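Newbie here. two chains, one complex. Structure please?
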Amino acid sequence: MYEIISKTEVVPNIYELIIKAPEIAEKAKPGQFVILMIDEAGERLPFTLSDWDAKKGAITIYFLEVGLSTMTLARLDKKNISAVIGPLGKPVSAEKFGTIVLGGGCYGIGGIYPIVKALKEAGNTVITIIEARSSYLLYNKEKLRKYSDRFIVTTGDGTKGEKGKVHDVVKIMIKRKEKINRAYFIGCTFMMMNCFNETKNHDITTFVALSPIMVDGTGMCGCCRCLVDGETKFACVDGPIFEAKDIDWDILFKRNAAYSQQEAMIYQFHSCESREV
Amino acid sequence: MDVKEKLKISRQKMPEQDPSVRAKNFMEVPLGFSTKTAQLEAQRCLNCKIPKCKEGCPVYVKIPEFLKLIVEGDFAAAARKIKETNALPAVCGRVCPQESQCEATCILGKKGDPVAIGRLERFVADYERENNLIKIPKKQPAKNKKVAVVGSGPSGLTVAGDLIKLGYDVTIFEALHKPGGVLIYGIPEFRLPKAIVEAEVDYLVKQGVKLKLNKVIGASRTVEDLFKRDGFDAVFLGVGAGLPRFMNIEGENLSNVYSANEYLTRINLMKAYLYPEHYTPIALGRNVTVVGGGNVTMDSARCALRTGAQKVTIVYRRAREQMPARGEEIHHAEEEGIILKLLNNPVELIGDEKGAVKKMRCIKMKLGEPDESGRKRPVPIEGSEFTLNTDLVIMGIGAGANPLLTSTMPDLELNKWGYIVADENGRTSMEGIWAGGDIVTGSATVIQAMGAGKQAAKAIDSYIKSGK
């Protein structure tokens, strides 16, 4: 059993979970993820490691309530979950590359933080851009600002910062011929693809953190396979961070939607049930 | 009873669930022997002076001895006799390919049917467990030496079982949330009930084996940590060959195309057939196609049937004689209505606008000259392509070496396929580190992995005792 130290709805529908997992906190590196199981009947759910504290033996993840499993996790009232496994996946290499743009949306506002921090500490010029539909959906701002040379907030409705999204800001930066050596984007697949579409013709090495469906998370099942540079790769052991130019986005979108019908139906069914109680 | 009388007894049949019934449930197919049938069957053993059956067993089970105890009616003692050399009799009695091991060398098999050794092994192990007669064997005094076992599959459980008896302090590290490795995530409930695996693991835990679940060695701890921080004296790597192979054909990444590993893991480990009581979903195909010819292919096909498929077809590129699956498994699959399409090979998968598989293009094959495996090489027949309709495809074409652990051990010698190089005792290129099972041999059987575990346990014991 793993103790939940805290669970907070940081903005509507996005939750921060701090879990006691000393071994993982000690070994975690930016870009890695954990697999989490609520109980014996639960799914094996992958989440980006968004912070950790080796001294306290704690790890932090952020998640969006989207389906049955995340709904259950969000409403969990017990103090323990049955499994936390990791750290899994290949970490990013935190070297000095020059000027780096890092973009986060949704759970990625939390997920981008370890990479921001590591790249700043490695001596890079770090430009962090985050996006949300509206100002009340922004979180993690102070932590990100602390390690950013420039910190840009965007909102879809313009209620805070620039009106628009991360890729709009990237577009303007490129137009202004600002020097960017590398870019990292974490968020939903659509957001990452949009961002890459801006950087791809401008000699900016761009990385994205893929979040395909997984089961074991250790390379054993092949559920999370993606087509990368024409080759089948497993996001859990070969990724989850890949160079964006190599990714077959179409396959990624379609494989991610494989269970959407079943899940939508079950989510409805369970939501109704829990309301009755 | 004299030999003549013994020879008159015919090999006893084990009752099975009717194919039309069992194809709709996950309960075990063979129902087990009654005590009477078991004793009758055991009487068939001729008590050969030089028992050939033992030589056929990778873990040297004392076969004539345990059969004699069955005849005498002391079933629990028979189970304990087996356990002297085999920690997992209830498992082996079910999934060992006895027809190519102990039963293949049984003298009775020369003219008629061999003694049903496997079924009797299952019978006594079940008898002992179901009647709560399991006794914890005596251990040698504690040696105060620690051994780490990485992976809780058949090889790891065997190493743990042998070394705990010798007085070692044994810890098993398992990456998944349940112990048993392939016995849990791979082999389906109807062939090996999970309660039996749990009981076998429990037997080890009761003897003092420590079990650490959710520990991915290579991620949360390295093998170096095991030695330097945790103070283990030796490490056994039994991590299996967990890296599914794909054919690298067009359309393989469409939705509803599974590796057999994923399909079986969702069903066996995650209990996806009980969705939504269990939260892991699985696609329910009506017209399922499974590619391959081994036991894993048979297991996948039979699981598909049990989750409601109306038609299940196995596509295999060679002929029936070359299928690596056990005869019994092929027979069971066919009885349940699974169609074998032999000498066919997929060349492309075709999807719909949503990216889900809809059709499989195949090419007909013929057999050519033998290849390096000794089996006749399948050769495509030009211009013979045809298309099958299907809405779910499972690739059961084998597994390779999973690099998660080995990639963290640069000094460990691997062969060109990524498997760990180890001698016949499981000794690797690194001091104090042993390996066995599929991560050394590539995909093989449960009992072969157990045999490797047995050798390694012996070698680890003498290494720790003598430092060599």
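Moderator note: Chain B has three domains: 3-130, 146-242+401-466, 244-399. Residues 146-242+401-466 of chain B form a domain with the FAD/NAD(P)-binding domain fold (CATH 3.50.50.60). Thread marked as resolved.
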